[in-house]
Amino acid sequence: MKIAIVGTGYVGLVTGTCFAEIGVSVTCVDTNSEKIESLKKGVIPIYENGLEEMVLRNTKAKRLKFTTSLESCLDEVEVIFSAVGTPPDEDGSADLSYVLAVARTIGRHMNQYKLIVTKSTVPVGTARKVRAVIQEELDKRGVQIKFDVASNPEFLKEGNAISDFMSPDRVVVGVESERAEKLMTKLYKPFLLNNFRVIFMDIPSAEMTKYAANSMLATRISFMNDIANLCEIVGADVNMVRSGIGSDTRIGRKFLYPGIGYGGSCFPKDVKALIKTAEQNGYEMRVLKAVEEVNELQKSALFEKLQKQFQGDLKGKTITLWGLSFKPETDDMREAPALVLIDKLLNAGCQVRVYDPAAMSECKRRIGDVVYYATDMYDAVLDADTLMLITEWKEFRLPSWAVIKKAMAKRIVLDGRNIYEKKEMEELGFVYSCIGK
Ligand SMILES: NC(=O)c1ccc[n+]([C@@H]2O[C@H](COP(=O)([O-])OP(=O)(O)OC[C@H]3O[C@@H](n4cnc5c(N)ncnc54)[C@H](O)[C@@H]3O)[C@@H](O)[C@H]2O)c1
């Protein structure tokens, strides 16, 4: 089977590579020629565990190809997945210009039946727009060619993307024809041989499912951050509360971790977009508005703790950040809380030293040389007045505190992810504060 994946970013590259891995012949398309050129040379533009070997293996086997031209591969393929970006527009709604540009190219150049599957996160009604754009282009050409549209939102997690794609909890597919359902079944069956977990539904429900899932997860995070903040005020320990409620099977243990707010390329924009969709349809998402508000405030939680430590006088202080990416195991810094914090620290007159195992060059690309990029986690704490733990990468979990103690100017640790033990840190001679205790 031959397919094309349009948009070779985090989702497109993983999707294409995983389909190639099960034997599908895949062409990955992207308008970014630099990205395509490096992929052709075997250089992977993103950090994702296990992806590089898989890309190289499938490129070598000639099951995975890269191109900047969708029209050039259109005749060869039957199914086209669109995984282009859907960034927030100025008003918070999803910008569909990339999705519709792909649809237009398909309509202009297709010569036989195609199934067009939207994998990008898009608001309800987008498949209808994709269909209309393709039909408009076919009408302009005066040709009649059958095609189907489908919705197949992606639930992979950056950092665990390959295993999420290869053995998903479930696959959600919105279709409106038997032919489309058969093609999607054929493509996903090899991943789910023993337990076929594809949930077929109508297209609007599939489009909505993705937003509902991300909004639910964002809600759990903001809820726990709110509880954590109250714990601090009333003298409770949020970690205990989390264990206490997480053991209730109706609640479950996952996604109950307080911290410094959610970031990344999905939650912030998807929560915003769902609020906007509701607004455009005369409804108000009251819970989600509060979720957003709590998240914005939470991004300042560590900065406020720092101000308290120095009675508001941060000028000239050297502050270390461990972790820059919005979560571990990725170099993605889109909407990363670290960016908000760095901005606040620089505005307050601090010197900032940073270290991240994967996101250093991405950070440099975004903010330039306004901070010091340390060679390792110990170089980062040299002469620091405070160490802030921002992203819970594994290598930060059990550091050599004796070395750190000697290297730092003052022994203050602010833990934005609650990975250290307060009692232990205090016994080691550090002033320690975390979230919700
Ligand atoms: N990143 C995630 O973890 C994740 C998870 C689930 C869903 N999603 C959704 O998937 C979509 C893609 O996200 P991403 O993180 O992979 O984005 P990304 O920015 O990493 O990749 C998008 C790619 O599309 C390319 N592109 C734009 N217009 C194009 C066109 N007309 N033709 C060909 N290529 C084009 C861009 O150059 C870019 O390389 C978004 O809607 C996102 O919300 C992302």
Automatic annotation (TrEMBL):
<dbReference type="GO" id="GO:0006065">
    <property type="term" value="P:UDP-glucuronate biosynthetic process"/>
</dbReference>
<keyword id="KW-0560">Oxidoreductase</keyword>
<feature type="domain" description="UDP-glucose/GDP-mannose dehydrogenase C-terminal">
    <location>
        <begin position="320"/>
        <end position="422"/>
    </location>
</feature>
<dbReference type="InterPro" id="IPR036291">
    <property type="entry name" value="NAD(P)-bd_dom_sf"/>
</dbReference>
<feature type="binding site">
    <location>
        <position position="121"/>
    </location>
    <ligand>
        <name>NAD(+)</name>
    </ligand>
</feature>
<dbReference type="InterPro" id="IPR014026">
    <property type="entry name" value="UDP-Glc/GDP-Man_DH_dimer"/>
</dbReference>
<comment type="function">
    <text>Catalyzes the conversion of UDP-glucose into UDP-glucuronate, one of the precursors of teichuronic acid.</text>
</comment>
<dbReference type="Pfam" id="PF00984">
    <property type="entry name" value="UDPG_MGDP_dh"/>
</dbReference>
<dbReference type="Pfam" id="PF03720">
    <property type="entry name" value="UDPG_MGDP_dh_C"/>
</dbReference>
<comment type="similarity">
    <text>Belongs to the UDP-glucose/GDP-mannose dehydrogenase family.</text>
</comment>
<feature type="binding site">
    <location>
        <begin position="155"/>
        <end position="158"/>
    </location>
    <ligand>
        <name>substrate</name>
    </ligand>
</feature>
<feature type="binding site">
    <location>
        <begin position="255"/>
        <end position="259"/>
    </location>
    <ligand>
        <name>substrate</name>
    </ligand>
</feature>
<feature type="binding site">
    <location>
        <position position="86"/>
    </location>
    <ligand>
        <name>NAD(+)</name>
    </ligand>
</feature>
<feature type="binding site">
    <location>
        <position position="158"/>
    </location>
    <ligand>
        <name>NAD(+)</name>
    </ligand>
</feature>
<dbReference type="InterPro" id="IPR036220">
    <property type="entry name" value="UDP-Glc/GDP-Man_DH_C_sf"/>
</dbReference>
<feature type="binding site">
    <location>
        <position position="263"/>
    </location>
    <ligand>
        <name>substrate</name>
    </ligand>
</feature>
<comment type="pathway">
    <text>Nucleotide-sugar biosynthesis; UDP-alpha-D-glucuronate biosynthesis; UDP-alpha-D-glucuronate from UDP-alpha-D-glucose: step 1/1.</text>
</comment>
<feature type="binding site">
    <location>
        <position position="327"/>
    </location>
    <ligand>
        <name>substrate</name>
    </ligand>
</feature>
<feature type="binding site">
    <location>
        <position position="334"/>
    </location>
    <ligand>
        <name>NAD(+)</name>
    </ligand>
</feature>
<feature type="binding site">
    <location>
        <position position="210"/>
    </location>
    <ligand>
        <name>substrate</name>
    </ligand>
</feature>
<dbReference type="GO" id="GO:0000271">
    <property type="term" value="P:polysaccharide biosynthetic process"/>
</dbReference>
<dbReference type="InterPro" id="IPR001732">
    <property type="entry name" value="UDP-Glc/GDP-Man_DH_N"/>
</dbReference>
<keyword id="KW-0520">NAD</keyword>
<dbReference type="InterPro" id="IPR014027">
    <property type="entry name" value="UDP-Glc/GDP-Man_DH_C"/>
</dbReference>
<dbReference type="InterPro" id="IPR008927">
    <property type="entry name" value="6-PGluconate_DH-like_C_sf"/>
</dbReference>
<dbReference type="GO" id="GO:0051287">
    <property type="term" value="F:NAD binding"/>
</dbReference>
<dbReference type="InterPro" id="IPR028357">
    <property type="entry name" value="UDPglc_DH_bac"/>
</dbReference>
<feature type="active site" description="Nucleophile">
    <location>
        <position position="266"/>
    </location>
</feature>
<feature type="binding site">
    <location>
        <position position="35"/>
    </location>
    <ligand>
        <name>NAD(+)</name>
    </ligand>
</feature>
<feature type="binding site">
    <location>
        <position position="269"/>
    </location>
    <ligand>
        <name>NAD(+)</name>
    </ligand>
</feature>
<protein>
    <recommendedName>
        <fullName>UDP-glucose 6-dehydrogenase</fullName>
        <ecNumber>1.1.1.22</ecNumber>
    </recommendedName>
</protein>
<feature type="binding site">
    <location>
        <position position="30"/>
    </location>
    <ligand>
        <name>NAD(+)</name>
    </ligand>
</feature>
<dbReference type="Pfam" id="PF03721">
    <property type="entry name" value="UDPG_MGDP_dh_N"/>
</dbReference>
<dbReference type="InterPro" id="IPR017476">
    <property type="entry name" value="UDP-Glc/GDP-Man"/>
</dbReference>
<dbReference type="GO" id="GO:0003979">
    <property type="term" value="F:UDP-glucose 6-dehydrogenase activity"/>
</dbReference>
